[in-house]
Predict the structure.
Amino acid sequence: MKAEKISELTTNRLSVYLRCLGELADEGEETVSSAALAKRFHLNSAQIRKDLAYFGEFGIRRVGYNVEELRDHLVRILGLDRQHRVGIIGSGRLGTALADYYGFRQRNFIVAALFDTDGRKIGKKIGGIDVFDIKGFSAKVKKDKIEVAVIAVPAESAQTVLDIVVKAGIKAVMNFAPVRLKVGGDVKLKTIDLTTSLESLAYFLAGNAKPAGKTVKPKAGKRRN
Amino acid sequence: MKAEKISELTTNRLSVYLRCLGELADEGEETVSSAALAKRFHLNSAQIRKDLAYFGEFGIRRVGYNVEELRDHLVRILGLDRQHRVGIIGSGRLGTALADYYGFRQRNFIVAALFDTDGRKIGKKIGGIDVFDIKGFSAKVKKDKIEVAVIAVPAESAQTVLDIVVKAGIKAVMNFAPVRLKVGGDVKLKTIDLTTSLESLAYFLAGNAKPAGKTVKPKAGKRRN
DNA sequence: TGATGTGAAGCGGTTCACAGCC
DNA sequence: GGCTGTGAACCGCTTCACATCA
């Protein structure tokens, strides 16, 4: 509640910086200036400096940033220096794909369990991970110390699932169902809406197909300036 | 290039409105006011009106909007009134999950083909969809009139794949690889970065775990006001 | 009267530009 | 000299408030 001083846009960028630094470290770079970082990954150097400055003074004037050191800082700031256990609800194609997602492990996220309502799946293993009845969600969360829930169920059931998840004490949720969900303020809900992303591409194609004609027509002219 | 008068934030919301209207239509509602829509789906009514007003005057004063009619308008604005053919590159778990994704079909997106470099997969069918050699991408795009590419390959290969895709004349790309990719201005690239989303949750958990102590420490006090 | 459509104000994030420091 | 850290300017999106009109 209080920790929201830093914009989410900033933390998202920290995640990007971390990745970039990983690449530089792999190449053996020891230090990097904000300008060099910006140029290489098409970022803005002022923004990099400002983002980092929220968390401390990591740079050395005249030199730049120490790659390894800054990376460690970012890992700690983002809370990636310890494991996070994840439960995925919905063991359809998307759920199982996520269970297998390499990026999870790479970032210290451990998929501890899958959950479903489908009796045919419960008790089985999918990709080496046990599928549990959603009814036992709360108990399993406590037992396995699950901190993050991923919702990969159809849109109709997503709100119900979210309510179960929140009741179990989970504070961080990633939702893939294309619906607007409601949560209390102390729970972080991140929705990844593939439908909207897709439609945004369709819009682009539609607008692109008719470059001159059907663009906007702002009614009473003079929209900007 | 020119069509970018309307912010992407606006078009994303149009997609949301469309979904909401679908729900209302299913319930048999004939008209809805911006205020009612806002209340029901936790949106802002002024924003709804403003977003819609960019595209025309769809409302009736004193009444609101006709649900069916507005829905049709949005479908047309978003370019969902015709099919879009999609090619997915990468037939791993994520790629195949996407090939199967219900939201695609529902929105008039047809997955025409999967592409891979893995000889063991090429020529096979996965979930009813043929897997082709990426080498034949360009030809297949022309033949099947593919307009949208989905990149579901590891981060290391993503830029290479993107270059192939762009060279084949594709103008709309959805990328799931966690990298910053480079494209020319006439191609719309939408990256869905699961790694960043995940790390943003981790950040929240980290900040949340230590509510008072390690928050920010803005160095020379007085950040805001 | 009651809802839309919209100019204007407000706000938050980005970029600029430079002081401070190594 | 050259890089960071940062106040100030800028910009675009959101929200407000109201004129407009069926």
Notes: Chain B touches chain A through 79 residues (CB under 8 Å). Residues 33-35, 46, 49-50, 52-53, 57-65 of chain B lie near DNA strand C (CB under 10 Å from a C1'). Confidence is low (pLDDT under 50) at residues 208-225 of chain B.
